[in-house]
Amino acid sequence: MPLGNILVADDDAAIRTVLNQALSRAGYSVRLTSNAATLWRWISAGEGDLVITDVVMPDENAFDLLPRIKRIRPDLPVVVMSAQNTFMTAIRASERGAYEYLPKPFDLKELTTIVGRALAEPKARRLEPEGGDPGENIPLVGRSPAMQDIYRVLARLMQTDLTVMIAGESGTGKELVARALHDYGKRRTGPFVAINMAAIPRDLIEAELFGHEKGAFTGAQARSSGRFEQAESGTLFLDEIGDMPMEAQTRLLRVLQQGEYTTVGGRTSIKTDVRIIAATNKDLRILINQGLFREDLFFRLNVVPIRLPPLRERSEDVPDLVRHFFAIVEKEGLPTKRVEVAAMERMKRYRWPGNVRELENLVRRLAALYPQETITDNIIEAEVDQPAASVSGGDGEEDESLSVSVERHLATYFQGFGETLPPPGLYHRILREVENPLISVALAATRGNQIKAAELLGVNRNTLRKKIRDLDIQIIRGGR
């Protein structure tokens, strides 16, 4: 007796054959069709325990068919396949009630696993998602396997309120992912409020997050609402969470545990209803080991971790991104450009230290500064090869001074922001980044002996103690 009856619809005969062989070997009974009309007739007659269908059919789009299937057979799982492989394809599949979305080409073992899981789950009526078609305003671009994995995770998260932690290098699009989770999720009608922890002075972070009462501190001449209050019923995006001071981490943890907070200077608890999405370009586990980030807060925030790959790990997405950004600048009034094949190949080989943000800035520069309609390999070579060589570790860099190294790092950092400037507070952020490893190394070299470390650094012992406390540096003491 077969494990289940599978209805397969795809106008590609080769795919139908492959699916038939794989599913039959796994013990399923399979019926094949090349059009949506036959599939609909089978489903209407009550046939099939599971449907596998391509999105684009010769007579009807599967996204138009899915709502009708859900109305008459809400418990019938539908697996959607597509060669379009965009973010919106995954979102539409989820919104229309698909059990799973699979980008083509797909792994047959993964497909049979999905089929087995779907048939094993208890049948439960699934309500049709609210809201209309979000349209083709695609917020994320890329068809690489790495991006496909992200699309599928995001699609599963859209109808949940789970806390999400987005990790990735600067310029990979962390806020873009956070906005997509909000704009296409169940809180889309609420506000999206973003706060960058690295851009706010340490002594003002709590007031920014939770608000303050009149007279709570010098300069507080009136009550001010915080970001939690502003994001009520919506999404609060905590960017660069790794830069949050320890005292603010403690208060944030309390809010996540209890669902309420008090304003700075306030006495009454305020209940909060927000979805938290956090992001970081740092390894929080390293910060935890250094005593700079609370482990219990990390586990509260890291419910669903999403890692955004750097552009160098998905170089096959570069052509799509280039076309996307050229289309944007064309709408802004800049001339149309095309990139020759050799130039595009060079762009795919480039390491992109500034990631997608650096690529966007390059496209804008190409559109604005070069009169040629075709961007040649020579132009791209002039634009990207010199920055790439500066970080290649070539001859002479072993003797590079700290000053030159810092200057080179800052040049790359500023380049990532293009024509805009980095967030305020750069001086103190850089000092903190330098002070922390400097003091940590000195303490490690002196096996935690603060008197010797102060002498080594040439600072007063009390000054060193204050720095250790302010920077939350963990001291590991050792023997002689």
From TrEMBL:
One GO MF term attached to the UniProt entry: phosphorelay response regulator activity
SUPFAM superfamilies recorded: CheY-like (SSF52172), Homeodomain-like (SSF46689), P-loop containing nucleoside triphosphate hydrolases (SSF52540)
Keywords recorded for this protein, A-Z: Activator, ATP-binding, Cytoplasm, DNA-binding, Nitrogen fixation, Nucleotide-binding, Phosphoprotein, Repressor, Transcription, Transcription regulation, Two-component regulatory system
Ranges for domain Sigma-54 factor interaction: 140-368
GO cellular component term, pick one: cytoplasm
All copies of domain Response regulatory, residue ranges: 5-119
GO biological process entries: regulation of DNA-templated transcription; regulation of nitrogen utilization
Subcellular location: Cytoplasm
TM regions (residue ranges): none
NCBIfam families tied to this protein: ntrC (TIGR01818)
Its biological purpose: Member of the two-component regulatory system NtrB/NtrC, which controls expression of the nitrogen-regulated (ntr) genes in response to nitrogen limitation. Phosphorylated NtrC binds directly to DNA and stimulates the formation of open promoter-sigma54-RNA polymerase complexes.
Protein name (database record): DNA-binding transcriptional regulator NtrC
Record organism: Bauldia litoralis
Gene expressing this chain: ntrC
